[in-house]
Write a structure and sequence with these properties.
Helices cover about 15% and strands about 40% of the residues. It contains two helices and 14 strands. The protein has one domain: Sandwich (Jelly Rolls). It is globular. The protein is α+β, with helices and mostly antiparallel strands and about 180 residues long. The longest helix is centred in the middle third of the chain and has 14 residues.
Protein backbone atom coordinates (compact mmCIF):
# COMPACT_ATOMS: atom_id res chain seq x y z
CA UNK A 1 0.00 0.00 0.00
CA UNK A 2 1.13 3.51 -0.71
CA UNK A 3 -0.25 5.31 2.35
CA UNK A 4 -1.65 4.43 5.73
CA UNK A 5 -3.61 1.29 6.50
CA UNK A 6 -7.26 1.99 5.76
CA UNK A 7 -8.28 -1.01 7.85
CA UNK A 8 -7.62 1.04 10.98
CA UNK A 9 -10.97 2.12 12.44
CA UNK A 10 -12.01 5.68 11.74
CA UNK A 11 -9.58 6.50 8.93
CA UNK A 12 -12.37 7.54 6.53
CA UNK A 13 -15.57 9.05 7.88
CA UNK A 14 -18.65 9.37 5.71
CA UNK A 15 -21.50 11.53 6.92
CA UNK A 16 -24.89 10.99 5.28
CA UNK A 17 -26.80 13.86 3.77
CA UNK A 18 -25.46 16.90 5.62
CA UNK A 19 -25.89 19.55 2.93
CA UNK A 20 -29.55 19.80 1.84
CA UNK A 21 -30.46 19.71 -1.88
CA UNK A 22 -31.32 23.42 -2.02
CA UNK A 23 -27.89 24.26 -0.61
CA UNK A 24 -26.24 21.91 -3.13
CA UNK A 25 -28.02 23.79 -5.93
CA UNK A 26 -26.84 27.13 -4.52
CA UNK A 27 -23.23 25.93 -4.24
CA UNK A 28 -23.29 24.61 -7.83
CA UNK A 29 -24.70 27.95 -9.02
CA UNK A 30 -22.01 29.88 -7.09
CA UNK A 31 -19.27 27.65 -8.47
CA UNK A 32 -20.45 27.95 -12.06
CA UNK A 33 -20.82 31.75 -11.82
CA UNK A 34 -17.08 32.07 -11.22
CA UNK A 35 -14.39 31.59 -13.82
CA UNK A 36 -13.64 27.88 -14.07
CA UNK A 37 -9.98 27.10 -14.57
CA UNK A 38 -8.27 23.88 -15.62
CA UNK A 39 -7.21 22.17 -12.43
CA UNK A 40 -3.53 21.52 -12.00
CA UNK A 41 -1.19 20.36 -9.29
CA UNK A 42 0.47 22.45 -6.55
CA UNK A 43 0.61 26.18 -5.90
CA UNK A 44 1.45 26.98 -9.53
CA UNK A 45 -1.57 25.00 -10.78
CA UNK A 46 0.76 23.08 -13.10
CA UNK A 47 -0.99 20.99 -15.74
CA UNK A 48 -0.63 17.29 -15.19
CA UNK A 49 -1.52 14.12 -17.07
CA UNK A 50 -2.86 12.87 -13.74
CA UNK A 51 -5.79 15.26 -13.53
CA UNK A 52 -8.54 16.48 -15.83
CA UNK A 53 -11.20 18.70 -14.30
CA UNK A 54 -12.17 22.34 -13.92
CA UNK A 55 -12.37 24.22 -10.63
CA UNK A 56 -13.33 27.54 -9.12
CA UNK A 57 -13.20 28.84 -5.58
CA UNK A 58 -16.25 29.95 -3.65
CA UNK A 59 -16.67 31.93 -0.47
CA UNK A 60 -19.41 30.55 1.75
CA UNK A 61 -18.70 31.35 5.41
CA UNK A 62 -21.56 29.24 6.76
CA UNK A 63 -20.48 26.14 4.84
CA UNK A 64 -16.84 26.64 5.82
CA UNK A 65 -17.81 26.75 9.51
CA UNK A 66 -20.09 23.72 9.16
CA UNK A 67 -17.31 21.68 7.53
CA UNK A 68 -14.69 22.81 10.05
CA UNK A 69 -16.97 21.81 12.95
CA UNK A 70 -17.47 18.39 11.33
CA UNK A 71 -13.70 17.97 10.91
CA UNK A 72 -13.01 18.84 14.54
CA UNK A 73 -15.74 16.48 15.73
CA UNK A 74 -14.66 13.65 13.40
CA UNK A 75 -10.94 13.95 14.09
CA UNK A 76 -10.48 15.46 17.58
CA UNK A 77 -6.89 14.16 17.68
CA UNK A 78 -5.89 16.85 15.14
CA UNK A 79 -5.21 20.49 15.96
CA UNK A 80 -6.57 22.57 13.08
CA UNK A 81 -4.65 25.78 12.43
CA UNK A 82 -5.98 26.80 9.03
CA UNK A 83 -8.90 26.04 6.72
CA UNK A 84 -8.14 26.46 3.02
CA UNK A 85 -10.66 27.99 0.61
CA UNK A 86 -13.56 25.90 -0.68
CA UNK A 87 -12.75 24.46 -4.11
CA UNK A 88 -15.68 23.72 -6.41
CA UNK A 89 -14.92 21.00 -8.97
CA UNK A 90 -16.64 20.07 -12.22
CA UNK A 91 -16.01 16.60 -13.65
CA UNK A 92 -17.48 16.15 -17.12
CA UNK A 93 -17.37 13.02 -19.27
CA UNK A 94 -13.76 11.77 -19.36
CA UNK A 95 -12.59 13.91 -16.42
CA UNK A 96 -10.75 12.24 -13.55
CA UNK A 97 -8.12 12.76 -10.86
CA UNK A 98 -5.50 10.03 -10.70
CA UNK A 99 -4.14 8.38 -7.57
CA UNK A 100 -2.70 11.03 -5.27
CA UNK A 101 -2.58 12.26 -1.71
CA UNK A 102 -3.41 15.80 -0.63
CA UNK A 103 -0.55 16.30 1.83
CA UNK A 104 3.14 16.93 1.46
CA UNK A 105 5.88 18.56 3.53
CA UNK A 106 5.20 21.94 1.96
CA UNK A 107 1.42 22.34 2.24
CA UNK A 108 1.04 20.83 5.77
CA UNK A 109 -2.47 19.51 5.06
CA UNK A 110 -3.74 17.01 7.61
CA UNK A 111 -7.45 16.56 6.82
CA UNK A 112 -9.28 16.46 3.48
CA UNK A 113 -13.01 16.89 2.96
CA UNK A 114 -15.22 16.31 -0.05
CA UNK A 115 -18.91 17.19 -0.40
CA UNK A 116 -21.01 15.43 -3.04
CA UNK A 117 -23.16 18.05 -4.80
CA UNK A 118 -24.65 16.05 -7.70
CA UNK A 119 -27.53 13.60 -7.62
CA UNK A 120 -26.32 10.04 -8.31
CA UNK A 121 -28.65 9.94 -11.33
CA UNK A 122 -26.91 12.93 -12.96
CA UNK A 123 -23.66 11.13 -13.77
CA UNK A 124 -21.95 7.74 -14.04
CA UNK A 125 -18.41 6.88 -13.00
CA UNK A 126 -16.57 9.57 -11.07
CA UNK A 127 -16.36 7.52 -7.87
CA UNK A 128 -13.98 8.56 -5.11
CA UNK A 129 -11.83 5.47 -4.54
CA UNK A 130 -9.12 4.90 -1.95
CA UNK A 131 -5.85 3.08 -2.65
CA UNK A 132 -7.21 -0.24 -1.40
CA UNK A 133 -9.99 -0.04 -4.00
CA UNK A 134 -12.61 0.83 -1.42
CA UNK A 135 -15.52 2.95 -2.60
CA UNK A 136 -17.86 4.41 -0.03
CA UNK A 137 -21.23 3.94 -1.71
CA UNK A 138 -23.01 6.14 0.84
CA UNK A 139 -20.85 9.04 -0.38
CA UNK A 140 -22.68 9.02 -3.73
CA UNK A 141 -25.71 10.53 -1.97
CA UNK A 142 -26.24 14.18 -2.80
CA UNK A 143 -25.17 16.30 0.18
CA UNK A 144 -22.96 13.59 1.70
CA UNK A 145 -19.63 14.58 3.24
CA UNK A 146 -16.50 12.42 3.45
CA UNK A 147 -13.59 13.34 5.73
CA UNK A 148 -10.21 11.61 5.80
CA UNK A 149 -6.54 12.19 6.64
CA UNK A 150 -4.82 14.04 3.79
CA UNK A 151 -2.01 11.46 3.61
CA UNK A 152 -4.33 8.71 2.32
CA UNK A 153 -3.95 7.97 -1.38
CA UNK A 154 -7.20 8.31 -3.33
CA UNK A 155 -8.50 9.03 -6.83
CA UNK A 156 -11.60 10.08 -8.71
CA UNK A 157 -12.37 7.60 -11.47
CA UNK A 158 -13.27 8.96 -14.92
CA UNK A 159 -16.82 10.22 -15.37
CA UNK A 160 -18.42 8.13 -18.11
CA UNK A 161 -21.72 10.01 -18.46
CA UNK A 162 -23.11 13.36 -17.28
CA UNK A 163 -21.46 15.85 -14.94
CA UNK A 164 -20.30 15.38 -11.35
CA UNK A 165 -20.06 18.44 -9.08
CA UNK A 166 -18.20 18.36 -5.79
CA UNK A 167 -16.70 20.65 -3.23
CA UNK A 168 -13.38 20.01 -1.51
CA UNK A 169 -11.55 21.64 1.34
CA UNK A 170 -8.29 20.96 3.14
CA UNK A 171 -7.24 21.70 6.70
CA UNK A 172 -3.71 22.41 7.89
CA UNK A 173 -2.41 21.63 11.36
CA UNK A 174 -0.93 18.69 13.18
CA UNK A 175 -1.82 15.58 15.10
CA UNK A 176 -1.98 16.20 18.82
CA UNK A 177 0.08 13.99 21.10
CA UNK A 178 -2.77 14.22 23.65
CA UNK A 179 -5.14 11.65 22.18
Amino acid sequence: MLGENLAEPGKVKVHGVVVPPMACNTIIKQGLERDLINAGIGEGNEKSKGRSTKVSFIDNSFLKLLIEDMVKESFPEYIIEEAEDLQFAVYEKGDFYGLHKDSDEKNKRVISVSVQLSKPSEYEGGELVFEDGRKHESFKQRGAVIIFPSNLYHQVLPVTKGTRYSLVQWFKGYESSNK
